[in-house]
Specification:
InterPro entries: DNA-bd_dom_put_sf, MerR-type_HTH_dom, MerR_fam. The chain is mainly alpha-helical. The protein has 2 domains: about 80 residues, Multidrug-efflux Transporter Regulator, Chain: A, Domain 2 (Orthogonal Bundle), CATH 1.10.1660; about 70 residues. Helix content is about 60%, strand content about 5%.
Length: about 150
């Protein structure tokens, strides 16, 4: 860790220091600033200076991206006018994330079903076929002819 004042919590940091700290390229921070996601202060020479609030904002953006949100969605959450609009945007994002999670859970259950199957070819397994059919709303008769190799 550097011994300079830039690592002290109350000091400000350059764009390069912030980028390095988060494993980002400096152009990413510039892009986020152009989108209005970040608004770092400027020093007397016009150089960006990032404070603690900026660091929390960068971390929040990264967490939101990890959760699958796009920059436009993150921008809508961060820049919403007032708490009521922000809550509305956040609720919409929660609903979208819940849908993604439900789809991922269904896919995980299908993969687990295939892993648990004793058939040589799990695609011929009646249980696997029923799980697959359930995802597309198709009824599979109870007695499916199973072809074994």
């Amino acid at each position: 860790m550097k011994s300079s004042d830039e690592t002290h919590p109350s000091s400000t940091m350059t764009i390069g220091t912030v980028a390095e700290r988060f494993g980002l390229a400096t152009h990413v921070l510039r892009h986020w600033e152009a989108m209005g996601l970040l608004v770092p202060d400027r020093d007397g020479n016009g150089h960006r200076r990032y404070g603690q609030d900026d660091l929390f904002r960068v971390a929040a953006i990264l967490r939101a991206k990890e959760a699958g949100l796009g920059l436009e969605d993150i921008h809508a959450m961060i820049t919403a006018d007032g708490p009521l609009k922000r809550r509305k945007v956040l609720k919409e994002q929660r609903t979208a994330l819940e849908q993604v999670m439900a789809a991922a859970q269904a896919q995980l259950e299908l993969v687990q079903c295939a892993l648990d199957c004793d058939h040589d070819d799990f695609t011929t397994c009646p249980h696997f076929r029923q799980m697959t059919a359930d995802t597309i709303g198709v009824h599979v008769p109870r007695h499916i002819p199973v072809h074994t190799a």
